[in-house]
Amino acid sequence: MGILVVGLNHKTAPVEVREKLAFNDQTLPRALIELRGRMPDAEVVILSTCNRVEVYVAAPDIEKRTGDIARFLSEFHKLEADKFAPHLYHHYNRDAVRHLFTVSCSLDSMVVGEAEVLGQAKRAYMFALEEGITGKVLNSLFQRAFGVAKNVRASSAIGERKVSIASVAVEFGQKIFSDFSDKTVMIIGAGEMGELTLKHLVDKGVSAVIVANRTYEKAVELARQYDGMAISFEAFVDNMHRADVVISTSGAPHYIIFPKHLPQVLRARRNKPILLIDIAVPRDIHPDVEDIDNVYLYNIDDLQKVVDENISFREQELEQCSSIIEAETDNLMAYFETLDVAHVIKDFHEALHNIRKSELARSLNKMPKLDEKDRQEVEYLTERIVNKILNQPTQTLREEASQDAEYKYIEALKKLFGL
Amino acid sequence: MTVDIIQMTSFYLAMFCFLASSALAVGYLFEPARFQPRFANIIAASAFILLTLFFALRWQAVGYLPVSNMFESLSFFVWAVALIYLIVEHSFELPTLSSFILPFLTAFALIAAFIAGAPGVMDSKLKSGWFYLHVAFAFVGYATFAVAFAAAVMYLLQRRQLKSKKSFNSVFNRLPSLEVLDDLNQRLINMGFPLFTIAIFVGIYWAHKSKILGPNWPNDPKILFTGITWLFYAALFHIRLLSVARGKRVAQLTIIAFVFVVFTFLGTRLLPSGPHEFLK
Question: Where does residue B277 rank: exposed (0-12), middle (13-18), buried (19+ CB within 10 A)?
Fold first, then answer.
């Protein structure tokens, strides 16, 4: 029995390949059943996210399975194998364990330390568990992986620090406003990053959204998504006092907000602070605006600088995480070792011979008259009996092990003899 | 005699607890995982209880509110700040506030411990119900100003952090938001200013009625500086009321005003003593 992972990720394969091999919630159960049909003696988990597709298999003679899995991926997705085979990696046993630990701790992620991958790994495992195609090995492996991820997160700062423009902007916002639920956001223009920042803020509880856009229809459309209010582009200055946060992403070739606009805005706001997030390039907001009291201005470079710092901070934590993962890999491999047949046979023999020896010593004490020759004869007798008893089960175990079917026997033996 | 020993023991134990709670509170700022602010607050609350015990015992022993000398006055100030801090902490749950208030409190506590001693002799003119009112309102008012001062310092630090656009790796990362600090400052001034005003009016009425300060009372340095301090807080109170300003300027004014409080309380002793000087 061994463990194998075959897969590809954002480091080995471009997105065009990854998306063709990805499984979604609908196709995943079917894929699991089909793969299991091809390998009835194997335990299987498939992990599919936007950055990776990985097939975890625990089976006898795993070295031979790599081709089967590639063939399955090719046939299931109707994609010629040579289109993706060069991007595949495979890891066996110890390396496979370490790989899953590294993935679930988010050290292998595109954004190191992001928390999503752990949830995705849990889902992948639950799918396989529901189909009943995991077993002792993959159950131990995945459950341990979740534990390791939790441990790594708790003992390192890998998951701290925001690493996207939108989340850093929101974090600055949280240092100004304690609670977004009574706050209003105005977004000027429409752009992917602006909308993402808006979405982050709405997720934090922002209650009112005002959208200004040069194309009024676009403003209406975006406003509808967030239950907000659309205004014409020209009206944004007059409405600015109503906003606690302004996200500016207009795409104008020049500044649209100048220092002269702010005094009236602040007066109308009774000097409550206002957060200006300028993610337009070229910039929308004149940089002198930030010298005004109660105005907090962040442009895309400010935010990107923090993102970069935070990413390098996370990377500094990698070393510590790796050492935790290495130790945990050792632990799990040691555990798998105890499931090894030779190990179990040795324990089994030792256990019975220990009983023999202690009972023999007791009886010999009661028979002081025996001479040395007789004592030896008695000892041989007990040895022969125990070896005879051990003979059949040992042979059976070895035979089953040669066909990689020893697990239930090992289990039974451990239970029956308390090994 | 034994009562004296219990008295001073509870005082010194309280000082020790303030010191320990400050260490924990500052530790929290640097290593939040290791120093839970809850422990700092539990120890600070114990210190407050011990200090209350000290005052209760001494009050019982001498028969009047023991603020007869500098040691007792300072201790009473520490007691009042601890009271306000514990109330604020209980209702707002701002763990970093402890890191600012408790060391400040402890500094005053240590000065008090340094000059600790037996009760002074209370001027017989002060043995009046008005005295209790005047002192109680003044000290609780000062205590709210002390906490407002801490909130203002925290506000300026947080603001500097935000304006610098730096990443959040500083020890000030865990400071509350500007909104919370500004709101806290406002509430404290709104509470402290009326208390302080009542203390002053009680004092004026009492002085007028009993003539204990004599005819020369406007020339007393303490009274003069109290007037200036009152003007600062009156300004703050009205700035808030009319929303003229907010944020940085209010925080700066809060800090300046509190400097005047401390000067009125301690510094006026350096000036020629006037009729309001009762501490021997």
Answer: middle
CB contact under 8 A, A273 and B158: no
- Residue A79's nearest CA partner among A25, A24, A16 is A16
* Overall pTM surpassing 0.80 (yes/no): no
Contact B162 A177 (CB under 8 A): no
Q: Among A175, A306, A313, whose Cβ lies nearest the Cβ of B177?
A: A175
Read off φ and ψ for residue A113, nearest 5 degrees.
90, -5
Which residues of A fall within a CB distance of 8 Å from B166? 306
Residue B183 CB neighbour total at 10 angstroms: 15
Architecture of domain B1-122: Up-down Bundle (1.20)
Q: Return the CATH number of the domain spanning residue range A2-161.
A: 3.30.460.30
Q: Nearest CB to B179: which of A171, A178, A302? A: A178
Q: Tokens standing for B118?
A: 């037996």
| CA nearest neighbour of B180 among A177, A180, A276 | A177
Q: In the CATH scheme, what architecture does the domain A165-300 have?
A: 3-Layer(aba) Sandwich (3.40)
Nearest to B245 among A271, A302, A305 (CB): A271
Question: Nearest-CA residue of chain A relative to B157?
Answer: A175
Indicate the pLDDT class of residue B30, thresholds 50, 70 and 90.
confident
Residue A9, both tokens: 């990720």
Which 3 state secondary structure label does DSSP give A162? Answer: coil
Can you point out the beta strands (E) in A110-226? 184-188, 208-213
Element (H, E) at A298: strand A295-299
How many Cα atoms sit within 13 Å of A175 on the Cβ side? 26
- Name the residue among A77, A60, A94 with its Cα closest to residue A8: A77
pLDDT digits (tens, 9 = 90+) for A337-362: 777 778 888 889 999 999 999 999 99
Catalytic residue positions of A, numbered: 50
Question: Which residue shows structure tokens 């007990």?
Answer: A382
**Upper half-sphere CA count for residue A251 (Cβ side, 13 Å):** 11
Domain ranges of chain A: 2-161, 165-300, 340-417
